[in-house]
Write a sequence for this structure.
C-alpha cells in the first residue's frame, strides 16, 4: 500500500482543519452539472459513475487512486474479516482494521465509498428522470443506489436514507428497519418499470451501461436477486417482511439469476476496461495473501476451487503444505502484528488477474439464498436440497471446475487445521467438523448452506462478512492479536459486528445532533461490538 501513509497524513490534516459531517457528505470528485452538459453525458455519465462506485473500480487512467480507496475501505476490513485474506504487512504497529482496531480514516473511506460517492449522481439522475419523464433511468439509478447503500447500512447501522434527495447538508438518519422496508419497496417498483421495458425488448442506457449493456431483462433478474438477498438478510429480525419480498423475487415472471452469464460484474463495458483491485494489491503491493480460514475449508474439503482461487506458494517458500492437487499452499493468519516481512511474501497469492471481473452478485449466491428460503419457508421456494446442490454446481461452473459435485458432497471430508512453523509460528485447530453432505437438522443444514455460500462468494468479503454476522456461519479462526478492546471487541471470537461512525460526524453542532439521533436509532453504544438490527440470531 504505497500511498497509504499519504492518505493517512491527509486524513490527519483534515482533522486539524476542522473536518465535519457536512464534508463527508460532499463528493469533491463529482463532475458539475455544467461540465456534464458540456460533454453530452449528463445522464449516461452519471449511470456509469454510479456503477463504478458500487464496488470501487478504476481503469489504468486512474493510476492507483481507486485501488488505494478499495484497499482501505473494504479489503483491510470486510475482505479480511470474512476469512478470505491475510496480509504480508501490518500497519500502525498492528493497530489497524485487520486486528480489529478501526482506523478512523479507513472507516471514513468506507462510508464515503459506499454512500457519499453515489449521492450526488443519484440525486441528479432522479431530477433528470422526473424532468424528462424517463422512469426507466430512475429505476436503474435506484437499483445502483441500493447496491451500494445496503453496504453502508450493513457496515454502520442507521444512516441518512429516506430524505437523501432533499437539498440539505444535514440529512436526518433513519432506522435500519425503515431503510430495509424502503429498499425492498423501491426494488419492487424498479422491477415493475424495467419489466415493461424487457417485455418490449427495449434497452436502457446501453451506451453507458458497463454491467449489462442496457439489457433490461438482465437488470430485472439482478434487481430481483438483490431483493432476495436483502429479504433473507432480515429474516431473523422480521420474518413476515422477509418472506413477503423473497416470494415476490422468486415468483416474478422474469425471476432471479440462474445462469453464469446473469452475473452482475464490472470488467469491460461503456467503452472502458476496468482493473481488478485485488490483483494489484497482491502482485504490485505484494501484500494480499490467502487467509487462514479459507485455507482450512478448501484444504480440508479437497475443494477443486482451491487452485481457481489461489496460487501455490513461491518456489523458494519453505512453509508450503502439500494439497490434494500435488501443489503446495500456505496462508497468513488474520490480525498478526509482525509488520512487513519476508516470511509471508512467498505464501499463496489470490489467483486473480487484472482482467478478472469485480463481481457484485453471481448466480451461485442466488441458489444458496433460495436454498435457505426453502429451508425456512417451505416448498413455495423450491426444494432446499436440490437448490443446495445447484448452488455448488453453479459455483463450480463459474470457476471453470468440471469435478463431480456428487463426489464432493458425499466425500465426508471436513475442514482441516492450520499452522505455520518457524519464527512466526501460528497454529489453529479445525474450525468445525461439518461435511458437505446435506444431512442433519435444519440448523445443521443451514450451516452447510452458509459454508458453501461463503466459499462461492469469494472474494466478495463484504457480503461474506455480513452473512457471517447474520448466521454465525461458517466458523472462522480468530485474529492472531485483538487490538479492538477499547472500541468494543472484548471477545475476539465474536469479531467486529459493525464499524463505528467516523469522528468527523461529531465535529460540529449539527453533526453532533445527527450523531446522537443515530445512536438512539441504533439502540446501543457506538462500538464495534454493538449488533445491528438484523444481527439477532
Amino acid at each position: 500500500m504505497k500511498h497509504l501513509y499519504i492518505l493517512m497524513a491527509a486524513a490527519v490534516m483534515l482533522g486539524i482543519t476542522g473536518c465535519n459531517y457536512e464534508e463527508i457528505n460532499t463528493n469533491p470528485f463529482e463532475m458539475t452539472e455544467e461540465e456534464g452538459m458540456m460533454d453530452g453525458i449528463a445522464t449516461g455519465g452519471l449511470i456509469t459513475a454510479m456503477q463504478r462506485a458500487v464496488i470501487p473500480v478504476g481503469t489504468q487512467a486512474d493510476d492507483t487512486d481507486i485501488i488505494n480507496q478499495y484497499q482501505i475501505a473494504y479489503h483491510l476490513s470486510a475482505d479480511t474479516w470474512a476469512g478470505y485474506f491475510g496480509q504480508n504487512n501490518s500497519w500502525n504497529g498492528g493497530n489497524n482494521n485487520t486486528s480489529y482496531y478501526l482506523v478512523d480514516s479507513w472507516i471514513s473511506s468506507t462510508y464515503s465509498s459506499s454512500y457519499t460517492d453515489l449521492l450526488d449522481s443519484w440525486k441528479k439522475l432522479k431530477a433528470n428522470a422526473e424532468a424528462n419523464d424517463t422512469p426507466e433511468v430512475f429505476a436503474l439509478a435506484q437499483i445502483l443506489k441500493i447496491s451500494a447503500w445496503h453496504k453502508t447500512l450493513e457496515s454502520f447501522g442507521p444512516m441518512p436514507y429516506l430524505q437523501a434527495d432533499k437539498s440539505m447538508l444535514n440529512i436526518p438518519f433513519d432506522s435500519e428497519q425503515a431503510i430495509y422496508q424502503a429498499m425492498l419497496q423501491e426494488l419492487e417498483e424498479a422491477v415493475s418499470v424495467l419489466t415493461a421495458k424487457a417485455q418490449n425488448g427495449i434497452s436502457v442506457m446501453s451506451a453507458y451501461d458497463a454491467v449489462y449493456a442496457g439489457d433490461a431483462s438482465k437488470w430485472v433478474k439482478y434487481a430481483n436477486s438483490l431483493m432476495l438477498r436483502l429479504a433473507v438478510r432480515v429474516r431473523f429480525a422480521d420474518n413476515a417482511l422477509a418472506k413477503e419480498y423473497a416470494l415476490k423475487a422468486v415468483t416474478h415472471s422474469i425471476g432471479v439469476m440462474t445462469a453464469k452469464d446473469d452475473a452482475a460484474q464490472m470488467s469491460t463495458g461503456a467503452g472502458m476496461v476496468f482493473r481488478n483491485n485485488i490483483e494489484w494489491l497482491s502482485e504490485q503491493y505484494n501484500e494480499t495473501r490467502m487467509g487462514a480460514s479459507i485455507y482450512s475449508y478448501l484444504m480440508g474439503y479437497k475443494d477443486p476451487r482451491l487452485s481457481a482461487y489461489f496460487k501455490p506458494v513461491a518456489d523458494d517458500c519453505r512453509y508450503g503444505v502439500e494439497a490434494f492437487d500435488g501443489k503446495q499452499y500456505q496462508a497468513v493468519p488474520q490480525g498478526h502484528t509482525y509488520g512487513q516481512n519476508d516470511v509471508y511474501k512467498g505464501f499463496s497469492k489470490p489467483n486473480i488477474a487484472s482482467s478478472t471481473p469485480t463481481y457484485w452478485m453471481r448466480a451461485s449466491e442466488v441458489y444458496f439464498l433460495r436454498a435457505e428460503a426453502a429451508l425456512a419457508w417451505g416448498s413455495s421456494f423450491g426444494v432446499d436440497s436440490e437448490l443446495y446442490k445447484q448452488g455448488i454446481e453453479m459455483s463450480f461452473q463459474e470457476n471453470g471446475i468440471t469435478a463431480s459435485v456428487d463426489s464432493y458432497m458425499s466425500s465426508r471430508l471436513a475442514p482441516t487445521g492450520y499452522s505455520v512453523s518457524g519464527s512466526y509460528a501460528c497454529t489453529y485447530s479445525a474450525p468445525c467438523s461439518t461435511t458437505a453432505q446435506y444431512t442433519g437438522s435444519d440448523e445443521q443444514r443451514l450451516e452447510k448452506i452458509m459454508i458453501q455460500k461463503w466459499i462461492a462468494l469469494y472474494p466478495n468479503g463484504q457480503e461474506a462478512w455480513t452473512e457471517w454476522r447474520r448466521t454465525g456461519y461458517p466458523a472462522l479462526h480468530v485474529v492472531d492479536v485483538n487490538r479492538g478492546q477499547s472500541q468494543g471487541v472484548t471477545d475476539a471470537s465474536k469479531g467486529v459486528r459493525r464499524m463505528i461512525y467516523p469522528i468527523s460526524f461529531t465535529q460540529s453542532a449539527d453533526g453532533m445532533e445527527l450523531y446522537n439521533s443515530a445512536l438512539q436509532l441504533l439502540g446501543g453504544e457506538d462500538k464495534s461490538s454493538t449488533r445491528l438490527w438484523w444481527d439477532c440470531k
About this structure: The chain has 19 helices and twelve strands. Residues 485-522 form one domain.
